[in-house]
Amino acid sequence: MIQRLYDEGVTQNDVVFNAPGLTVYAARWRYALCAKLDRLSKTGARPYDMSDAVDYLDRLIGKRGRKQAVKKPELRAWADEFKFTVPSDTLIKRLGDEYKKKYGVLG
Fold first, then answer.
1. Rounded distance, CA 1 to CA 93, Å?
2. Which end of the chain has less Cβ packing within 10 Å, N or C?
3. Cβ atoms of 9 and 25 closer than 8 Å
4. C-alpha angle with apex 99: 50 to 78, nearest 5 degrees?
């Protein structure tokens, strides 16, 4: 699983840091989004987790060409794939509401 996540990050090609001999890639956006939703579904979520999740959702939609919103079944399948807590309807609605508030469209 780790090798696959690394390979997907390289393929995604969103560089977080670059220096001679070191390149750090962002995790695949669907993984990063699910990680944030997982934390939001548990005790101990940080105040910025929803904002991060909204931004990760936007990056994911941007990679799709801004025409395809992410559907509930996709989010649930990704969470299951990565062994995260599957997000509840309430959490998904909150994410959608926060996305629409920030970007003015459905996410």
1. 29
2. N
3. yes
4. 70
> Structure pTM?
0.87
What's the confidence (pLDDT) of residue 96? Answer: 95
Spatial distance between the Cα atoms of 46 and 9, rounded to a whole number of angstroms:
24
Could you tell me which residues come within 8 angstroms of residue 49 by beta carbon, excluding any fewer than 6 positions away?
36, 39, 40
Q: Which helix (H) or strand (E) holds 8?
A: helix 2-12
pLDDT by residue for the chain (107 residues), tens digit each? 788 888 888 888 889 899 999 999 988 899 999 999 999 999 989 999 999 999 999 998 988 776 788 999 999 999 999 999 999 999 999 999 999 999 988 88
- Cβ atoms of 58 and 99 within 8 Å: the answer is yes
